[in-house]
Amino acid sequence: MRAASTRFRLGAFVAVSMLVTGCQPTEFSDAEKQTIASLALSALPPLPDDPTNKVANDPAAAALGATLFFDTRMSANGAVSCSTCHLIDRQFQDDLPLAKGIGTTNRRTMPLAGVAWSPWFFWDGRRDSLWAQALVPMENPVEHGGNRAAFAHFIAANFHDRYERIFGPLPDLSGVPANAGPLGDAAEKAAWDTMTDAQRGDVDRIFSNIGKMIATFERSIAPKETRFDRFAAALAAGKEPQGDAAFSNEEMLGLKLFIGKANCVTCHNGARFTDNHFHNTGVPVVAGLPEDLGRETAVKEVAADPFNCLGKFSDAGPAACGELRFMVTAGEALTRAYKTPSLRGAADRPPYMHAGQIETLEAVLDHYATAPAAPSGTSEVHPVTLSERERGALIAFLRALSG
Amino acid sequence: MKRTHWILIAAAAVVVAIAAVAVHMMMAPPDDLDMARSKLSEQKFYLATVAPEQEPLRQGELHAWVLTLATPDNKPVEGATIAVDGGMPQHGHGLPTSPQMTSYLGEGRYRIEGVKFNMAGWWELKFAISAPPGDDRVTFNLVL
User: Which residues hold heme c 1 (chain A) (predicted)?
Assistant: First the structure.
């Protein structure tokens, strides 16, 4: 009797310790189930309004925006469009460590699925609306390399009627130089300086409307359902996941680690697997690139951007500009802080980090497990010990976030 | 028999150690966290009460709170200057936004806009209050 009781106690202990250490069988507590449900696509809120863009839900604007997105005439050399780096069949990114337009940029191209749910744009959040974001590459000499006067003339010459049906009459651009802009080369800047305030306002209005149409198109690019979402739906319904919704033991362990010991869900939270915030995670600098301080520089840039939420080209009043009005503008936490990227589809789009510094998912896990000191500022990451089995499980789970 | 006991004790110690590590990694908030939404400030100059404008609190959404200030004998405090701070004590970081007192709503009530909690866990919301009774501070705990 006594021996049997000891055996029972030992058996119970083994069962308990297996659960505690994350060994099989993998089951989820109620709290874990709640977290899993919060990550599922079904938890994604409806497409948010963009009050800064009055044509954000106008199908005609989306259609012309799509046309412009793929139009290589929107560049200085006639060879670069938004889709040069945001490839439609590659999750709207380019698989390169650093994006290549006319030249090479300093950052990794971001994918576009679910971008309309984001409060900040670019890796460092240096723009506060999707349309203000779309304007930046168009005038960057190493991306489209264009200038806003040329873009305004291009719209008037090629899309006159379609533009007017969306925004009303185009202004008279006859006195506007063919090439002019405040961010261009010396000749373009000089030409911009010769223009009247009214002419500059006209050009800026058309330029901002180009961004709004492209943004309206991009709002239609939504995250797609994945195997994880089907698994999560079955779990939430208390049903046995069927077909490809069934997770392997390895994927179950990976999910458990993701929302538990590995602390991934701290930042990669919500249905888009991002907290939409900026973190210093000790990602190394890339030799040869100019100094990059991430959010620290971006807060100044977005505050000064004439196309921000509080600017005259925004269709919203200050009440809609909370993110900008209440953004953190100083402090060490901003130094080399970059936006938490969504992990949906991430397994299929190496390399990783804001300048493609890390080539594989395995190496990303190594980075987070070892938590190296940041090149500047302070890394928020704390080291965590992961066994080979646990690393494999996390990667298996991340793959279930694709397709 | 004795040997079995030792194995059990050693095994139990391992379980406790693993559980302790797991708890540390998960960073559960302390059990005895003061969750009161109404309390006296540190120097007892003010009775402070906080309430979000909308409940339940939603992670990741910008929202507003109302801070109500009264003297300990329950008279509304007017004309206060309020600075807002906070963060996650277990993560060592501050708030993701910079909330501000944006309007006085009357009867000691102040609107605090621009609050956001971008992670689950234990958050502190701290108010530095400056008004005729004196400068004082009060901290509220929240768990998302």
Answer: 82, 85-86
C-alpha dihedral sign at B96, B100, B103, B104: positive
Q: How confident is the model over A286-308, as pLDDT tens digits?
A: 999 999 999 999 999 999 999 99
The residue from A203, A218, A233 where one domain ends is A218
What's B114's domain CATH number? 2.60.40.10
Give yes or no for B96 touching A (CB within 8 A).
yes
The first and second tokens of residue A310, run together, are 């509080």
pLDDT tens by residue, A85-143: 999 999 999 999 999 999 999 999 999 999 999 999 999 999 999 999 999 999 999 99
Global pTM reads 0.90
CB distance B22–A322 less than 8 Å?
no
Residues A80 and A35 in one domain: no
> Does the distance separating the beta carbons of B19 and A326 come in below 8 Å?
no
Q: What confidence score (pLDDT) does residue A197 get? A: 98
Domain that holds residue A290: 17-46+224-294+336-399
Residue B28 pLDDT: 82
Of the residues A218, A250, A273, which one is the last residue of a structural domain? A218
Residue B23 resides in a domain: no
Q: Which tens digits make up the pLDDT trace of B123-136? A: 999 999 999 999 99
Range of the domain at B89: 38-143
Classify the complex by whether its ipTM is higher than 0.95, answering yes or no: no
Confirm if B136 and B45 have CB atoms less than 8 A apart: yes
3-state SS class at B84: strand
Does residue A71 have a pLDDT over 60? Answer: yes
Residue B22 with chain A: CB contacts under 8 Å: 20, 260-261
d(CA B83, CA B98): 10
Assigned token pair, B135: 């400068």
Residue B60 falls within a domain, yes or no? yes
Domain annotation covers residue A7: no
Q: Burial of A335 by CB count in 10 Å (0-12 exposed, 13-18 middle, 19+ buried)?
A: middle
